[in-house]
Hints:
Layout (H helix, E strand, L loop, with lengths): L12 H18 L10 H11 L3 H13 L13 E2 L2 E2 L6 H4 L10 E3 L2 E3 L2
Antiparallel strand pairs: 1-2, 3-4
Helix pairs in contact: 1-3, 2-3
Organism: Alcanivorax xiamenensis
Protein name: Preprotein translocase subunit SecA
Amino acid sequence: MSTGLSDHWLMHRQVVSLVNQCRRRIREEFAVALRLSDADLRQQLRHYARVSQDTRIRALLSEIDSLAPELPAEPEAPRQMYRGQAVRSEEKPSQARTPKPVKKSKRMYRGRPVED
């Protein structure tokens, strides 16, 4: 997956507009439906740009590459996400916390403790 939302190449309006133009032209020429949610969308766009007869697709792809440079080849270690936020993962959960002994709760009757 991506290293984060802020540096994802499809998070810019101009790039999405250019990708949609590319997708439309590829759909017309090859009858293939590419989706924005595809993990390898960028590689698919490059493949179809290489084999396409349409020079506009190549121009659009070069413009996309200039607006959204490629992410580094080395992905960071995957982080756990919860509701879009990165959460800390503990390496050694056994040493992190020791469970506290459970206290037996007192029984109450009309706001007063009751002995059994």
